[in-house]
Amino acid sequence: MYNPFAVTLLALEAQKVVELRLVKLAWGGVEGQLEAHRMVSEKIGAFIEALGTLMTGGSADVVIARYRERVAANTRRLTAS
Description:
The chain is an all-alpha fold. It has 3 helices and no strands.
């Protein structure tokens, strides 16, 4: 089973990253293109990591915690510039 509170926090935290990324994409240019590429590659990497965790017996809570770490890192990166 998974922790619904952690899922809710992930959803709320991810909304901030969506907002920050949309602003960067809207500005366009090289930074917007790099962000689009980064976003796609991060999503593929996160999917592969989550799949590997679940296939090796990891729980949904572990996957959610890792996604929250990635979201927090993106928030820090996108608000630093």
